[in-house]
Amino acid sequence: RKGDVEKGLRESDVVIERTYRTQFITGLPLEIEIAYSFFDGDGRINCISSMQNLYDVYNKVIKILGVPNDKLRVVQAATGGGFGPKSDETPIDVAAYACLATYYTGRPALAAFTRSEAMTVQCKRHSFEITNVVGAMKDGRLNAWKSKLIEDTGAYISKGHLVIGRATFHCTGPYEVPNVWADGYCVLTNNTMAGSTRGFGAPQAHFAAEMIMNELAEELNISPLEIREKNMLKPGSLTSTSQKIEDDGLVRCFQRAVETSQFTRIRLEFDEFNRRNKVLKKGIGIALLYHGNTLGPEGDDFATVVSRIERDGTVVVQTGLTEYGTGALTSLAIVTAEVLGIPLSMVRLERPDTSAVPNAGPTVASRTTVIGGQAAVDAAIKLRAAVASVAAKILNTEPLNLEFKNGEITTPNGRSLSWREAVNKCYEQNVSLKAVGYYIAPPTKWDPETGQGAPYNQYTYGALVAEVTVDIETGVVKVDRLTAAYDVGRAINPMGLVAVYEGGSIMGLGYALTEEIIHDGGYLVNPNLHQFIIPTASDAPEEIQSIIVEVRGSIGVFGAKAMGEIPVVLPAASIAGALAHATGVYFRELPLKPSKVLEGLVKATHL
């Protein structure tokens, strides 16, 4: 609740109301849930499993087995994708099945879902129905925004109450609106369970927000760029929760995306193309986002990292945070190497293991680099201090005078000692070279009654431009080019970021165009890859332009912002906007399958 929305709507020059619908999908990690268990020589059950949340599996399986804590060890196996489902209930299920079999038989056990079973029981991305009523002045300034979000969470609530919270916080998109009223409803139904899926409510909320901005721009006879430029969050702006924005990350992303894509020129060229072609039509669309980083109001945002230095100078980093293809743990190695001044090749990551590391919180909400990186730096600083205490005596200086760089430890007057030599001296003097790093983000402050306050410590911003071609006789939509600009805060691993941009964009393309979980009377009728259509390499755009914008964040390691989930949020909105430009028809329901596009075009011609 912000301002007086009813008064704001009355005073607006233009008011429009639209309803948008999104579908169920599954995150579909290509590797199914699987767990292997066995007794070791100490009478302890060892469970090696594919998962996202190490201690979530450990804590719940311990309760299921009813054994003391030291009688279970859980290790994350190399994991082939997560995307949310492997942070929810199914990894716990397979681990429990395997461990129970081992517990009662004394023998090794393997438990795994089939593809059909996995798609049936995995949590889905929630289906949403979002009704937006938006009022604006003649010049395009937003004046009031009223949203009603209805989320289908299936037969079990899972994370539904948290997903609807994030969606409601973001329902106005990255725009400043003086009067806001938003209600979110998490509804239990007889459909299969929905829960954690990459984006966590943001793709649904931004689809509805960006589409109504396009429709409002048309109503006001202004361009989609102009309406966004006038209303986007800038330094000093207040979000829908009245949180003050401190940086210009969104402005920079918008400018870079528009300039790089040559949006205005391409739009005019497409208009001319469409006048000359009757069957193929081209369109260009843009969508913007802001995304609250890490857990925010969803839980305590902490992480732990255990690091140690081997005698040969290798640094071993281990944490309860997991790796499942994102490359996020590589960032922990990078920041460790940076603090210690050693090559990245001298840092080794070890697999998450409950017998070796404490709880580091869940590996969700794009928080591994942001929060886990801070814990890794804390551990590395402690190790550097230990090495510095010995090196300083050898170099006859104070520890604070030492510089750690390129595998050398040097003093201001040029005296130096190699990293390996210093580590050897530490071992000779029995100096402990093991450290536990810890970080917890500042608590967020907001009013659960009004939703006002600061639910997140920092935000990632982004802009995505999509160019499409649609065959109006078949309804087939082809995405030709995407131009993505995201404010990453600080690019810890630039190559990894580009991979995240590209992979997330293609995943978002599937959500926009083809993917849909279909229920009939509560039963899932398409739990297979024949009927649940995911994009392949042939569906990828010819070009994805990845633009890294860096505006330092307030809590992330070295100023980094969350990125893991971000690229999946905007493709549906930008593609739907481009389709509207190409055809003159606004499609308000996902996915944009050929049959649905044809149906919309036919309806429009008969209006």
TrEMBL record:
The keyword Nucleotide-binding does not apply. The keyword NAD does not apply. Residues 257-541 form the Aldehyde oxidase/xanthine dehydrogenase second molybdopterin binding domain. One of its GO terms (molecular function) is oxidoreductase activity. Residues 2-232 form the Aldehyde oxidase/xanthine dehydrogenase first molybdopterin binding domain. PANTHER family: ALDEHYDE OXIDASE 1-RELATED, XANTHINE DEHYDROGENASE. This is Uncharacterized protein.
